[in-house]
TrEMBL record:
Skewed-composition ranges (Low complexity): 1-22
GO cellular component, one term: cytoplasm
Alphabetized SUPFAM superfamilies for the sequence: Putative DNA-binding domain (SSF46955), SAND domain-like (SSF63763)
One example of a Gene Ontology biological process annotation: negative regulation of transcription by RNA polymerase II
Residues covered by the c-SKI SMAD4-binding domain: 158-237
Any Pfam family: c-SKI_SMAD_bind
Official protein name in the record: SKI family transcriptional corepressor 1-B
Region: Disordered, residue numbers: 1-50
GO molecular-function terms, A-Z: DNA-binding transcription factor activity, RNA polymerase II-specific; RNA polymerase II cis-regulatory region sequence-specific DNA binding; SMAD binding
Amino acid sequence: MCDSSSSTVSSSSPRSTKTINSDLSPMSSKEESMHDTGKNPNSDAAAPGAKQNQVGTVMLFGVPIVSLVMDGKERLCLAQISSTLLKDFSYNEIHNRRVALGINCVQCTPVQLEILRRAGAMPVTSRRCGMITRREAERLCKSFLGDHAPPQLPENFAFDVYHECGWGCRGSFVPSRYNSSRAKCIRCSFCQLFFSPNKFIFHSHRLPESRYVQPDAANFNSWRRHMKLCGDPPEEV
């Protein structure tokens, strides 16, 4: 009886141990991947040893946001940030603020999108997802949620600007009208029409003293590079 009992215990123990280990391994791996990386919060680089497409979570203003390692950087799901932390703001407000802050949004691959779906960051019906770094996410959220009231300026306050794209143009920049790069806040000094900054650099008037200058890869998002303050010496806006 003892031999039989001993045989039963010894034969069942390995099976029991093996079953427990196989049950714990996936759970342990999942829990480890879903915890914060614990790396330097001031760096966008992924934690040492992190693999491509590794999933994690980042606490952003007290809200857990899914992160994904992409090309050695830890990036966060912009759509998840928009639907949680920035849910009180419209898509256009978030998009315009992101562009104004110069934040580059990297599109994930279909494989990465499926990983984000399984992690709960994106709905199953989603077709695409933009990713931004942790520091970019902090800047974007802080610009909306931070307690920093803009300085009060006189309603008629303006300063003169100009650009040299094409035939060039001069205008008055009205800060009180500016809330995005698409806001019509620059009044042309010649035709008195209002333009947004990213359209003003394509607006010009050919005057007798004008000299045509080929735009240096001008596009809608590079207006800061082409807009200059009137004065001596001129300074870039």
